[in-house]
Amino acid sequence: MLEGGAPTDVVANPLRQGLAEERVPEPAAMVIFGASGDLAHRKLLPALYSLTRDRLLPARFAIIGFARRAMTDEAFRDELRAACAEHARRRPLDNDLWAAFAANIFYQQGSYDDPASFAALKTRLEGIERTLGLPGNRVFYLATPPSSFAAVIRGLGHANLAPPPPPPEAARPVPPPPFARVIIEKPFGTDLTTARALNRDIHATLNERQIYRIDHYLGKETVQNLLVFRFANGIFEPVWNNHFVDHVQITGAESIGVEARGGYFEQAGSLRDMVQNHLLQVVSLFAMEPPIAFDPDAVRDEKLKVLKALRHIPESDFDRQVVRAQYAPGSIAGRMVRGYRDEPNVSPDSTTETFVALKVFIDSWRWAGVPFYLRSGKRLPKRVTEIAVYFKEAPHLLFGRRGESIRPNVLSIRIQPDEGIALNFGSKLPGPSMEIAPVSMEFRYGSSFGVEPPEAYERLLLDCLLGDGTLFTRADEVEASWAWVSRLHQRWADDTAAGRGSLATYAAGTWGPAAADRLMAADGRAWRMP
Ligand code: BG6
Asked: Which residue has the CA at smallest separation from atom 5 of ligand 1?
């Protein structure tokens, strides 16, 4: 269900009937707080440019960058041009298109906790809206450090820049009033207490229907394809449960280290940085029940049930189900790299984890007894995100009598790179004997569709402009995932205080510590080599 009425710019094209729905939002202005930062330069503006190039943004659209630094509109546009030339998916830049796009980009200097800055922003925004004939629809993007989220939202409230929409049950005025939506970047809190406090602060100004909490994994094509794969095909859903699935492995591996983000990462660690958000979102989409409709609340209601059904890891099993580790010096692709403790802005005796492996259960009828093994780490041999579903073996083995075991069927869903899906199964080797060899049926996005998937931020910015919150996390989802993750942090903190607990190390360029292999070996299993 979309908030804010039907798009007005869509021209019906009879040739597209039955094909993908083309969605163009209503004319609007987008204000980006933290506009001089990395995210705006590397992701947001390049995404907006690519959307413009694909004609997915309305013709009347303004971007207002807001940040502390003094800068003219012209200087801001020049900076963004360089950033888009380097990072936009649609490159090289088209000069005419850039000129038209840049003409509607403006810069406003201000401070996040100063009411006068928000009053000035309002005056500027209203002036731009008048000049460009915009109807007053607004999206505010919080790309600031998280410590400023609450202040910016208070500022919006005091200046009455983001009034809440009429309640859904109220008679809807025609035409609908302009919308005001707020996109909030991650991290959303650092534990359950801070996430709850942030939700409370935000809800003092905004209605939940105005809030779009970003998890960029939900904008990835392959993550969305999980829903299509499961619910648009009749043959997979019947086997998507504990009768057929032996276990599931989810890997989020990166070859990069913490780069210039040592200061942030010291406070975060892999559990906060990757698991609480990205990996648990993937788990919830993978494991959820079919929603009653493909609408934001129906989908998120089902995801929430999965997050609430995550079994808390008992004290007695903690060391068998949870592994944390940190990278030591090593070599990746033939290049020596330093260890985590030698990275800039990292303490030389840091105990922050750069790798985590977990064995997790979902207490539901569908998944009872099926272990989900999750692992995520930096400085692993390569960048790969994938889900591998291991199916149970055939109940009665007619073949493989000579002692050789038959490999289980594995469905691997490659989220990135080389996006695709493969199903492994055993096939008879040509020849007179009944020998079996593993083979694979594969689908690759690149070769099937011949296009590069759009950037996650493109999809998410567009969805917010269209009022579709399906791919954004709701307040209760964020709190449910923190509730589960915060217990792990608590246990680590208790261990550290008591001088217990072990932080393993692994050489950069390896698949993590031996303890992660032991976690699997204890169950008679092994990590899949992605
Ligand atoms: C971010 C984390 O949210 O996700 C980073 O803060 C991580 O540490 C990144 O590198 C991974 O995203 P992607 O899209 O490259 O898998």
From this structure: 273
Hey, is 185 helix, strand or coil? coil
Instruction: Quickly state the pLDDT bin for 18 (edges 50, 70, 90).
Output: very low
Residues 372, 370: Cα–Cα separation, whole Å: 6
Residue with tokens 């360029």: 509
pLDDT tens-place string over residues 218-269: 999 899 999 999 999 999 999 999 999 999 999 999 999 999 899 999 999 9
- Residue 243: CB atoms within 10 A of its CB come to 10
Place of tokens 């032991």: 518
- Tell me the two tokens of residue 157: 């409230």
Centroid of chain to Cα 414: 15
Nearest CA to ligand 1 atom 15: 254
Q: Which atom of ligand 1 is nearest to the CA of 277?
A: 3
**Nearest-atom index, ligand 1, CA of 264:** 6
CA distances, 80 to each of 40, 106, 121, 455 (Å): 9, 11, 20, 18
Instruction: Spot the catalytic one: 41, 87, 216, 278.
Output: 278
Ligand 1 centroid vs 68 CA: distance in angstroms? 26
Interval between CA 415 and ligand 1 midpoint (Å): 13
> What single-letter amino acid sits at 37?
G
Residues 6+ apart with CB under 8 A from 478: 188, 189, 195, 199, 213
| Tokens (6 digits) for 451 | 């296009």
Nearest residue to 162 via CA among 6, 29, 297, 60: 29
Distance CA 80, CA 40 (A): 9
State which of 89, 261, 278 you would mutate to test the pocket of ligand 1, scoring each by most atoms of that ligand within 8 A of its C-beta: 278
User: How many Å lie between the centroid of ligand 1 and the Cα of residue 354?
Assistant: 13
In angstroms, the CA 229 to CA 235 distance is 10
Q: Tokens standing for 449?
A: 């569709």
Rounded to 10 degrees, the C-alpha dihedral 285/291/297/302 comes to -50
Q: Report the nearest-CA residue for atom 9 of ligand 1.
A: 274
Q: Enumerate residues 6+ apart whose C-beta is below 8 A from 187.
A: 146, 268, 272, 273, 277
- The verdict on whether 158 is a catalytic residue reads no
Whether the predicted pLDDT of 336 surpasses 50: yes
Ligand 1 binding pocket, CB closer than 6 Å:
254, 273, 385
Bridge-based pairing state of the strands 322-328 and 245-253: unpaired
Residue whose CA lies nearest to ligand 1 atom number 6: 273
Name the one residue in this structure whose structure tokens are 């204890």: 522
